[in-house]
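User: Hey, quick favor. My workstation is busy. Could you predict this chain's structure for me?
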Amino acid sequence: MAKNLKILLPIILLIQLLIAAFMGLAHDEAYYWLFSHNLDWGYFDHPPMVAVVIRLFSFLPHSAISLRLGFILMQLGSLLLLWKLLPLEKRWYATLLFFAFPLASFSGLLALPDMPLLFMSALYCFFLQDYLRRQTWSNSVVLGLTIAFLLYSKYHGVLLIFFTILALPKLFKQKHFYLVALVAIVFFLPHVWWQYAHQFATIKYHFIERPSSDFSLKRSVEYLLLQVLMAGVLVGPFLWFKILKFKSETDFDRAMKFISVGVVVFFFISTFSKKFEANWTVFITISL
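Assistant: No problem, here it is.
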């Protein structure tokens, strides 16, 4: 069974490359392509990871594939990390669920910040699991670096950290936790300095300048229905029922449940005053 899964990866890669080659570029992809030609520690509405991923493959002949290749590989990397989190007998099941999530399947085809966020979320879960099993100086540093990369991918990544801490407040009693925080802060400081040098333009845009909307019950209900759909076209209701019913046996399980439920609740509350976008919760694919 495990061998069959390894055979599956190159098949998925080939299919993704074929689709990427013939699918026209979205406006946002062209926008981020411009970012990649002007690398910086930040941009008006996003941190820089999306630009870095595009730039990494700029040595290839310019094409839709070269623009999207890094994101396709990140999607497969997210799946591989998901496998690492699970016993062998669960990996086929997890693979089917992963590709049943519409945005997890589709995001790998486009050069957008959502796939770096999903990949870094998978990396965060992988190293968090190792950290919770045993705290060492080395895995604390690696987890701290991963958190910095998570935040460089998309600001939504802070929610993984927040809900992990909310699930496990005992982390504050562990000395290695402060090393994790220190490493993350130090490596994220260049972006903080960029924000300062640009009058915190991104924060102003997201929290002040983006238009608010009057409360709409319809919008909030649509959001909740969409979250069920995003958890799998056919299996979403069943999956969410299992998650809400699930009793955590380990610290890692508890963190994954808090992340999954907490992120959905957070954005549900935000729908009271703002419009929402379906891709905002794509990064909880791994925790779900």
